Fold this sequence. Notes:
A: 375 residues; alpha/beta; four-stranded parallel beta sheet; 13 strands; 39% helix; disordered C terminus; B: alpha+beta; seven-stranded mixed beta sheet; five-stranded mixed beta sheet; 14 strands; globular; disordered N terminus
Amino acid sequence: MRFVDEFRDSDKAHALAAKIAELCEPGRQYKLMEVCGGHTHTIYKHGLEDYLPEQITLVHGPGCPVCVIPMGRMDDAMALAAQPDVIMTSFGDMMRVPGSNGSFFDAKARGTDIRMVYSPLDSLKIARKNPDKRVIFMAIGFETTAPSTAMTILRAAAENLANFSVFCNHVTIIPAIKAILDSPDLRLDGFIGPGHVSTVIGCRPYEFIARDYGKPVVVAGFEPLDILQSIYMLMQQLAQGRSEVENQYARVVPWDGNLVALKAIGETMELRPYFEWRGLGFISHSALSIREQYAQFDAERLFSVPGVRVADPKACQCGEVLKGVLKPWECKVFGTACTPETPIGTCMVSPEGACAAYYNYGRLTRTRVKEASRS
Amino acid sequence: MTGSQAASHPSGWVAEALRAHDEQAAGRPARQGSPQPAPGTVREELVLDRIDRARRARPRVKEERITMSHGAGGKATQTLIEAIFLDTFRNPLLEPLEDAAQVHVNGARVALTTDSYVVSPLFFPGGDIGDLAVNGTVNDLAVSGAVPLYLSAGFILEEGFPVESLQRITASMQAAAERAGVQVVTGDTKVVEKGKADGCYINTAGVGLIEYAGTLGVAHARPGDAILVSGPIGDHGVTIMLARGELDIEADVVSDTAPVNGLVRDLLAQVAGVRAMRDATRGGVATILNEIAAAAGVGIAVSEDQIPVRPEVRGASELLGIDPMYVACEGRVVVVVDGTEADRALAALRAHPQGEQAAIIGQVTADPPGIVQLKTAFGGTRIVDLLVGDPLPRIC
Lengths: 375, 396
């Protein structure tokens, strides 16, 4: 298939893998974080780690928007959905995420009207079709999906739609990366920067990582060769003692981002003083809420949201796993209290989470003879 | 973490999960039959052993109510079947959980199966709920080595459903029955109030005679066997997703719904070493491969670049972020055959018009048992597990 197969060429992968292996200093361990859940998905889907030498470990970061929604926030969403005449609409991948009392799927089974949509604009359609109902869109995601929520609010405002609102859970990636960088037990050598987020925010916001923390960042695309090339670029920087922000995904990511999208976000949303992340706790200015001017579309203003706070179970060590301090199996609840069927922490929620991946594939990964070390 | 903390947690399942952890931490003896880790084993090894034990533990439905995941064909469906249905009805004929049961009636070997159809939309490119209802049941019989003979048809109709649509459905059922060489010989009709069903649901049951002398079953797979598919995978599932019109994607793809009894008959007549066959419906080829690996206690290694997928299906799957390996087919068979007979089986499948694009997609291995590994086209490997959930309901 054109525009796909070119980025999955195994000959090129072998060549890149050899170059990456050459850049490894003997005896040195490298921990690189791919921030974005989409990258984690590519890494697993294509078995990319087979190309990496044992010395390089990929740490799966906090960039899975589904996984980072805290349990209390899910409980709030559930409470909103249970209000009279409400139709809650949500992306499919939110349906399984557990709150205190089960997931959207469970609530749906109990008779709550929760519908899956592929785009927030589909929620608008549902609102138009059901004027006697109050339609809420469960907005989640980083700067990648925030523009489409913003555009939907603007569209609803233009139509003066009275029965549509947004439960805004949009989060921003930079404060989360900063929280990880600021932790005293950090063990990361560099970052594979999030490609989709960067199409919106550009590459400049990462400059502080290279400048203030001395860690290289390479913004990467989502095909396996993109990621392999980004790892190569990171290893080159490390080998040469550089720490810069580089853009591997230049075919899509403009250095300054997408100004139209940023404007739409800025028009409709503002930073919250703080927001809770599953596994990482409260991070200041790490999420977006809807501006006063668009209050009529803000579910948090229209409905009484309980504001439930459910602390992460104490035994959960997602934060340490996310920072690369602990391996998944070193967490106290891994594989016992916390499993893919009954996840406690963010790393187990999505199949791409570090813990879920290790739970499913750990045995195999341990016994696998790595491609790169053979060659 | 103390017990009282776990109990005061507002969430039922978290409390339960933490209790489980406390029990583990307190050194509760391992379940019967599970290997005790050798002294001196590193902790990672202990953790992996614990996961293995949990996987082999008796399945239990943890949810209080049925969710859509229970019907999606993945892990939740499997748990529901084993923990509720198999546990209640347990008998030696049901236990293999094959596509059809084999019963002996007066010396004859009879295959018996049933399936319900709730597809939405009812009419889609390449077919409708009617031919699906006939082909699905015919195929469950055929892959059990039976010659399908008679079908029943039960209809649950929603008040207000157009008679003309019902006529279209029954006409395509009859056409499918004629094509497969079976007859619909008994039936049932129920009508429910508007809003209590979605137009038309159909249940069909079927019986067939097993004339094939060998024994078929996924538990018979052994290392060295080859795995084949009879044609491109994922056509039906992708067609249905696109036919719903929710995705605003258009592609020239039609359902593969078809009776496979002719194809299977030719294969069994020409190849002696066939060990098992399954039609890859809900859950797709990936689910079938996992069933084989689990039932036979073997590993399976398949190669992504050997698996036939139409470009349209691959393209739509890429856009939708789904994996064709998990997408339903309605006229494709997964065959496990003695490795020495693989080429002969491939030739037999390809000689039939429905098997022209058949392919050998992988092998059965001894290690690691219960695990399906995919060699990706990119050159890596990954595990192809059962899906925990499936966001795409009602495809058959």
